[in-house]
């Protein structure tokens, strides 16, 4: 029986419609359906739409200067640079190795790195790393080490790509220029410098002002800085709780790290009993603040102008949790999802989920209702739902979101989210 014909190339998508210069824009990715919707906020007007694009939910959206974002199409094997405020939504498309695991850039937003992960496989199998120079369009692929490496890109006169490996754990530094100059054929490369880490690293961040890199582990947050051609470890930051963070991000509004601490039995069937705390570490003062969020599944977070937003999924009811700059907590109930995680099952296999997004220059918070094709738009100042947006696809598994304004400073966090 002959192989099935490949999917036909979709017709060109229309050019974006004009939008007010100061209007926030919401990018909604339905990675299952293969669509990207661009909506103005708060009215929900569709500015643009891409079809036939299955973005990597794990690599997420990477904020670039000027309100642009980078993401990876896992079906076509392309890094996309999207300009939701421009005349052409797709500013650039560059072939990269997939499935994309993590995505990061240097502080200038010019030099990008994409690591590969499991995709729909039970064990890590790919050791490919792609580096891209957006200014010249040059790209190269090399082989590093099989796994699911995190990545950051340190800037300066001689930029470094820093991979965060697991089992065995290590920071591995590579000179960006050497990777970009690699010959064809995906050659294996050797790290310029190695710094040991615990084996259970998961979660990466970089502070552009100091050039420090951070990795979340069971022991706490490990940190390192560049010294010549070497990486030098700094004092780890403890979680100070019987729990750990699996997600780590830099707050571009102030020099701080955020995570969500998960505690309780590791058995995924007992997920309704998991404890969750918001964790914030001020890098300037060294002060750490933890705030209880409630039981269930809490993972990624979003940073609005004066609030940090979390979604909490639980069989007794889901909610958006808004943590104010003054540490006040507001809880906003969310309508139930058909196909939501249930007691007796895991919280991530064959179930609906929620994505959350915000912009450091806006008071809006967007939350998806997976499988229903809905996005709740909430005013963080009041906790009121201002609109329910329906981009036009079901958003199975929750989809993925990014909320941008032209100059919101979100690119101060140079790691994909």
UniProtKB/TrEMBL annotation:
Positions with biased composition (Basic and acidic residues): 405-417
Chain positions covered by the region annotation Disordered: 1-22, 391-417
Segments of skewed composition (Pro residues): 1-21
Signal peptide location: none
Alphabetized InterPro entries for the sequence: Haem_d1_sf (IPR011048), WD40/YVTN_repeat-like_dom_sf (IPR015943)
Coiled coil: none
Protein name: Uncharacterized protein
Organism (species): Streptomyces calvus
């Amino acid at each position: 029986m002959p192989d099935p014909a490949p999917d036909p190339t979709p017709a060109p998508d229309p050019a974006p419609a004009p939008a007010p210069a100061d209007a926030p824009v919401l990018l909604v990715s339905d990675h299952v359906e293969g669509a990207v919707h661009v909506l103005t906020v708060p009215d929900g007007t569709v500015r643009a739409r891409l079809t036939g694009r299955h973005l990597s939910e794990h690599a997420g959206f990477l904020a670039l200067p000027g309100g642009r974002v980078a993401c990876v199409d896992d079906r076509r094997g392309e890094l996309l640079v999207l300009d939701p405020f421009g005349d052409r939504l797709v500013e650039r498309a560059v072939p990269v190795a997939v499935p994309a695991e993590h995505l990061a850039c240097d502080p200038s937003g010019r030099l990008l790195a994409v690591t590969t992960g499991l995709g729909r496989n039970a064990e890590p199998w790919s050791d490919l790393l792609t580096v891209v120079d957006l200014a010249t369009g040059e790209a190269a692929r090399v082989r590093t080490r099989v796994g699911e490496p995190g990545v950051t890109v340190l800037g300066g006169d001689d930029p470094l790509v820093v991979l965060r490996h697991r089992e065995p754990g290590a920071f591995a530094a590579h000179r960006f220029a050497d990777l970009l100059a690699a010959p064809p054929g995906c050659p294996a490369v050797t790290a310029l410098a190695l710094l040991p880490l615990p084996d259970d690293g998961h979660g990466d961040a970089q502070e552009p002002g100091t050039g420090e890199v951070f990795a979340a582990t069971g022991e706490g947050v490990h940190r390192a800085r560049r010294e010549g051609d070497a990486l030098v470890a700094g004092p780890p930051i403890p979680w100070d709780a019987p729990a750990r963070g699996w997600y780590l991000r830099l707050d571009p509004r102030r020099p701080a790290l955020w995570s969500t601490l998960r505690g309780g039995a590791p058995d995924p069937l007992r997920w309704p009993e998991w404890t969750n705390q918001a964790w914030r570490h001020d890098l300037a003062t060294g002060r750490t603040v933890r705030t209880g969020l409630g039981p269930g599944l809490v993972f990624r977070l979003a940073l609005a102008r004066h609030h940090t937003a979390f979604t909490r999924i639980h069989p007794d009811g889901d909610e958006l949790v808004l943590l104010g700059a003054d540490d006040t907590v507001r809880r906003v109930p969310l309508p139930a999802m058909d196909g939501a995680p249930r007691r007796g099952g895991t919280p991530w296999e064959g179930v609906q989920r929620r994505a959350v997004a915000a912009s450091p220059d806006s008071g809006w918070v967007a939350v998806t209702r997976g499988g229903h094709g809905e996005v709740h738009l909430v005013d963080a100042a009041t906790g009121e739902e201002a609109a329910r947006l329906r981009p036009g696809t079901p958003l199975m598994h929750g989809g993925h979101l990014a909320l941008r304004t032209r100059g919101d400073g979100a690119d101060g966090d140079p790691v994909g989210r």
